[in-house]
Specification:
The chain has helices at 3-6, 18-27, 30-43, 51-60, 88-101, 139-157, 171-177, 225-229, 247-254, 281-284, 307-310, 325-337, 348-359, 368-371, 381-389, and strands spanning 76-81, 107-112, 124-128, 161-165, 186-190, 207-211, 221-223, 237-241, 261-265, 277-279, 287-289, 293-298, 314-317, 340-343. By secondary structure, the protein is an alpha/beta fold. The protein folds into 3 domains: 3-60, no CATH class; 76-212 and 384-389, Rossmann fold (3-Layer(aba) Sandwich); 221-379, Rossmann fold.
């Protein structure tokens, strides 16, 4: 029998973690095998005369390299959703997983800490991670558990794309993703108004950060700004969230202060004169707005990613801020559907014409069904699927 045939078969999952790979390297090193031969000779003196020949054999033997495994990637995606508390990002990952299942993007593997399994479990490879409080682990123990479990999942799934949901790049996740080849895209999907500037990926340079529309697999609750402000439901409200530098837009809006109720999203800066009503961001994020409301924002507003959920006619002023390709896809789609008016020049005439159009829309057209933007017909995850279907993923 040839020496090649005598080689012991090593399943790839045995070397999934970095500890296993380091242990494999140590066990096949010269110093480790030298120590083994010395111990055997001490335990059995009859082996001492053969020790020099054994040492020569170790010196001149071919160095045993790490086994070469199959590098073929499966045509599928690994989605990771991890929370320290609750199931927020786990459910977002699960929601995307269920949407991708309806497309032809290949096999889907889900790694999260959600208690309930995803729908169509027979089509998904689901791996559940216990939360840090569930097992009463220390942070170090929990991160080690994450690294070992996720490394094994990656070895089994061999994905062509890895997507991460979370508010922090945990050490265990980073250690598991770090050995991946640079040809495998790593995407950190930012939701809930987390900005790329607020996080750091220096520990994992291959990680690409990309903002995505706000979404959840739960039904969205409704919110009435009229009830918050204690105003009659038939009164038209223009809700604004714009940067104070966009003075042309502010001046244009102020021309309508006698026709509509101008209301601003509360910020740390002072409000323009003539706007006396405010609502807090947390009161409207993740909800569908009721009654007669028009939203006016610029491309720096945190509400931009929430437009599919807010479900109201909107005016958007583009100021040159670079949007993520998924958010940009969402803006173009909503503009084509007529629920979003986009102005790309700071021209007061063009701004006023667009605002006149939105304000003149009959109240009967403000229903979700008329807008074609109900939660049953529109899923923000579809914008993510469109981006994933492209062969070359752009992050800018």
């Amino acid at each position: 029998m040839s020496k090649e045939a005598e080689k012991e078969f090593t399943p790839e999952i045995y070397l999934a973690t970095k500890e296993a790979r380091e242990l494999y390297r140590i066990r096949n090193s010269f110093t480790f095998n030298l120590g083994i031969e010395l111990i055997r000779s001490i335990k059995n003196p009859f082996r001492i005369p053969l020790l020099p020949f054994r040492l020569l054999g170790l010196l001149f033997s071919r160095k045993r390299l790490s086994p070469i495994f199959e590098k073929t990637l499966r045509p599928g995606i690994l989605i990771i959703g991890i929370d320290r508390i609750g199931e927020k990002y786990s459910l977002q990952a699960q929601s995307l997983c269920e949407t991708i299942n309806d497309s032809n993007l290949g096999e889907i593997s889900l790694f999260n800490n959600s208690v309930e399994p995803p729908n169509n479990l027979e089509k998904v490879e689901w791996y559940r991670l216990p939360t840090i409080r569930e097992k009463n682990k220390s942070r170090k123990e929990w991160n080690l558990m994450v690294e070992r479990l996720l490394s094994s999942v990656i070895t089994i799934a061999r994905p062509k794309h890895v997507i991460f949901f979370g508010d922090y790049l945990y050490r265990g996740v980073r250690d598991a993703l770090e050995p991946l080849e640079s040809s495998i895209p790593l995407s950190w999907f930012l939701t809930d108004h987390i900005t790329p500037e607020s996080i750091s990926v220096k520990s994992l340079p291959n990680m690409n950060v990309i903002s995505v529309p706000e979404y959840s697999n739960d039904l969205y609750s409704s919110q009435s700004i009229h009830r918050i402000l204690r105003r009659p439901s038939d009164e038209q409200i223009v809700l604004i969230d714009i940067d104070s530098k966009n003075q042309v837009l502010i001046d244009s809006i102020m021309q309508y202060k006698d026709k509509v109720l101008l209301t601003a999203v509360q910020k740390g800066t002072s409000l323009p004169k003539g706007i006396d009503h405010v609502v807090r961001m947390k009161e409207i994020v993740g909800t569908q707005l009721e009654d007669n409301v028009i939203l006016v924002i610029d491309d720096q507003s945190p509400l931009l990613s929430s437009l599919p959920v807010l479900n109201v006619p909107c005016f958007l002023l583009r100021t040159g801020v670079q949007l993520s390709p998924i958010i940009d896809e969402m803006v173009r789609d909503m503009e084509l559907k007529g629920t979003l008016v986009v102005v790309r020049r700071k021209s007061q005439n063009e701004i006023i014409q667009s605002l006149d159009y939105l304000i003149s829309i009959p109240k009967s057209l403000f229903s979700p069904v008329s807008l074609g933007n109900s939660s049953s017909s529109l899923r923000p995850t579809n914008y993510v699927v469109k981006w994933l279907e492209k062969s070359n993923h752009s992050y800018n």
